[in-house]
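// run 5 | inverse folding | seed 20
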């Protein structure tokens, strides 16, 4: 089964900074590389990934940041959302939310560590919830 996801930037930061190989954020990157998760992205989102991941405070090697963007290009799908006015706590999250909202035909999940930044919707979930959904689906097949 294939799952479509929009990955909030904080998930990538967490995955790249954690020392826990079993963390849900690390598992999400692995599921992308295995072709189980198809990340949906836009030019805006890829630019945000690159800008945030290359911040000096994170000290993530540039090659690793570029590798993440390359993985999204290889395994993901470009989707440019139709921009509409939306009231979110962080205006930078609007394009991210709109990708997930406008691709509901794919049953897309928006995966974030900041659930309070987005409207309460069944498709806005935490990394752990996503991993639990996938592991449950795999175990019942």
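// decoded
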């Amino acid at each position: 089964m294939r799952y479509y996801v929009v990955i909030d930037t904080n998930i990538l930061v967490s995955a790249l900074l954690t020392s826990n190989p079993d963390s849900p954020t690390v598992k999400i990157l692995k599921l992308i590389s295995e072709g189980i998760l198809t990340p949906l992205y836009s030019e805006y989102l890829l630019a945000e990934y690159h800008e945030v991941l290359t911040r000096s405070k994170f000290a993530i090697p540039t090659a690793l940041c570029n590798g993440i963007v390359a993985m999204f290009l290889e395994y993901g799908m470009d989707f440019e959302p139709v921009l509409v006015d939306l009231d979110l706590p962080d205006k930078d999250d609007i394009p991210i939310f709109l990708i997930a909202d406008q691709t509901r035909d794919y049953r897309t999940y928006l995966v974030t560590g900041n659930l309070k930044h987005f409207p309460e919707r069944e498709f806005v979930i935490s990394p752990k919830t996503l991993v639990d959904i996938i592991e449950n689906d795999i175990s019942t097949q």
